[in-house]
């Protein structure tokens, strides 16, 4: 009980902004990822982590994250945002009720990968959804653009092969 009280005191000694940063730090996010997610400067993220390190006397980010996770666990506040379940309240029927009898993956379960909207910003003003891969290339350059790109790539591959063969020939003569 004493550990639990100490953990609560330590947890309550943190500011809301420090808790915000530490939650993401425990989720193995980098400073840059944390700053993007919270909309703050990376330097601010580092300052908040450094302030906690100074309070707790930890030597690095990993120790700080580990200690924060332990404190959250002792306080009964899970890191992932899920509440603890009462093991006695679970019945046999509620365990696994979401799972199908024969789970399998089908192609319709997959969704295509999307690039961030900023990747093609300014290319397609009339397109509300982001385009990726060959669709984006076709929209920008058309089929003839794709054919031209294939020819350019084939020419580059032929030049690379010719260069490698020339180097191999010269190396063969030297030996």
TrEMBL record:
Among InterPro entries, the record links this protein to:
Sig_transdc_resp-reg_C-effctor, Tscrpt_reg_LuxR_C, WH-like_DNA-bd_sf
Keyword annotations for this protein, in alphabetical order, are: Membrane, Transmembrane, Transmembrane helix
Q: Does the keyword Membrane apply?
A: yes
Q: Which domain of life is it from?
A: Bacteria
**Database matches in Pfam families:** GerE
Q: Which GO terms describe its biological process?
A: regulation of DNA-templated transcription
A single GO molecular-function term is: DNA binding
Protein name (Swiss-Prot/TrEMBL): Helix-turn-helix transcriptional regulator
Write down the species. Answer: Novosphingobium aureum
């Amino acid at each position: 009980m004493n550990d639990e009280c100490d953990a609560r005191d330590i947890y309550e000694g943190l500011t809301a902004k420090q808790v915000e940063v530490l939650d993401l730090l425990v989720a193995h996010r980098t400073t840059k990822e944390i700053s993007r997610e919270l909309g703050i400067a990376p330097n601010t993220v580092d300052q908040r982590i450094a302030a906690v390190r100074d309070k707790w006397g930890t030597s690095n980010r990993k120790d700080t994250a580990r200690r924060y996770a332990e404190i959250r666990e002792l306080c009964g506040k899970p890191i992932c945002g899920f509440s603890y379940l009462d093991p006695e309240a679970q019945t046999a029927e509620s365990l696994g009720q979401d799972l199908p009898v024969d789970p399998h993956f089908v192609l319709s379960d997959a969704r295509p990968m999307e690039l961030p909207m900023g990747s093609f910003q300014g290319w397609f003003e009339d397109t509300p959804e982001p385009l990726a891969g060959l669709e984006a290339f076709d929209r920008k350059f058309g089929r003839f653009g794709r054919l031209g790109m294939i020819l350019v790539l084939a020419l580059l591959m032929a030049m690379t092969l010719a260069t490698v063969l020339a180097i191999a020939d010269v190396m063969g003569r030297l030996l």
